[in-house]
Write a structure and sequence with these properties.
The chain folds into two domains: about 1-90 and about 295-320, Rossmann fold (3-Layer(aba) Sandwich), CATH 3.40.50.720; about 95-285, 3-Layer(aba) Sandwich (Rossmann fold). The two termini are about 25 Å apart. About 35% of the residues are buried. It contains nine helices and twelve strands. It is α/β, with parallel strands linked by helices and about 325 residues long. Helix 3 (about 95-110) packs across helix 5. It has a six-stranded mixed β-sheet, covered by helices on one side. The protein is elongated.
């Protein structure tokens, strides 16, 4: 069977996939910008690894599986994809992101970087000798918007620090093993009002695009800190900037953005508005899940799904199931 990898994969993100395969695949890597070569390769492909399917794509009559090497499906135009093709995604980033969230909350609350910088100059401020005292996560409330894999991993770690955890999700639940009841999205504003930290961990969909705007920030505590590790567009850019610039909330920890560099570029501002000028924000370049353990775990998960397809077994992490031809 033919596996098509729609990427040049110059940094080797998928290089471990063949090592984890225990079924026979003919692997071909093709650059989609070379349309004739891409068209020829796609004709006989049974599976393809790609994060995108947009625009005028060549016919893929044999394609049974479009395997995303990441979690987000917002670059897939399902209307352009044959209904006989199953779409699966891949996670494994929730461990790194959960550690990032806890680490950033600890940094925000304790301020180790600031103490280090001032202490190097001989300033003992913040010590038991001359205060001020720093905060604790213990007893604080964390509200999680979108309670999937990331939300659960964060909740588990937050509880270990003695935090109170609340969550709302598209799929509400009266009982969750970690935190008890998970509210539906109608409980969003109640969650915002209760939370000291608000974590955005929902997928980007038509329903969540622009979910947090002026009214959401107005509902938050004036000391609340919003954390976004999902997609930038879930939070309205201008509303976030205004809430921070006017100090209507305590601050923000933002890892996902509104503007990204073009392919091949590694510099550029992440938004049209000057977030970098604000003092009450921690900014990182979409790095929360980019850990040493991520790619080996993802490569194994991708290979496992390909092995399942080859053996005729049920696939994992189905985003959209195939519909058999009439």
């Amino acid at each position: 069977m033919k596996l098509l990898i729609k990427t040049t994969d110059t940094d080797g993100r998928l290089k471990l996939v063949p090592e984890y395969l225990d079924t026979q695949w003919n692997i071909e890597v093709v650059d989609p910008s070379d349309y004739p070569a891409f068209e020829r390769a796609l004709r006989g492909a049974v599976a393809m690894i790609s994060m995108s399917w947009r625009g005028q794509m060549p016919p893929a009559p044999a394609l049974e599986l479009l395997q995303l090497p990441g979690a987000g499906a917002d670059e897939i135009d399902f209307s352009m994809l044959d209904t006989r093709t199953t779409v699966c995604n891949c996670y494994e980033h929730e461990i790194g992101i959960a550690e990032y969230v806890l680490g950033s909350m600890l940094e925000w609350t304790i301020g180790v970087r600031k103490m280090d910088a001032t202490f190097r100059g001989g300033d003992w401020g913040g010590s038991h000798l001359c205060g001020p005292r720093h905060g604790e996560l213990f007893g604080r409330t964390l509200g999680i918007v979108g309670y999937g894999r990331i939300g659960r991993q964060v909740a588990q770690r937050a509880q270990a620090f003695g935090m109170q955890v609340r969550a709302c999700s598209r799929t509400s639940s009266k009982r969750d093993a970690l935190i008890g009841r998970v509210a539906g999205m109608e409980g969003l504003y109640e969650l915002l009002a209760q939370s000291d930290f608000v974590l955005v961990a929902a997928p980007l969909t038509d329903a969540t695009r622009g979910l947090l705007g002026p009214s959401a920030f107005a509902a938050m505590k004036p000391t609340a800190v919003v954390i976004n590790v999902a997609r930038g567009a879930i939070i309205q850019q201008e509303a976030l900037f205004d809430a921070l610039a006017q100090e209507r909330i305590g601050g923000a920890i933002i890892d996902v953005w509104y503007d990204y560099p073009s392919p091949g570029q590694i510099s550029g501002r992440p938004a049209a508005l000057p977030f970098h000028e604000l003092r009450n924000i921690l900014m990182t370049p979409h790095a929360s899940g980019w850990t040493e353990g991520l790619l080996p775990r993802r490569n194994r998960a991708i290979a496992d799904n390909l092995n399942r397809l080859a053996r005729g077994e049920p696939l994992m992490n189905i985003v959209r199931p195939a519909v058999s031809a009439a």
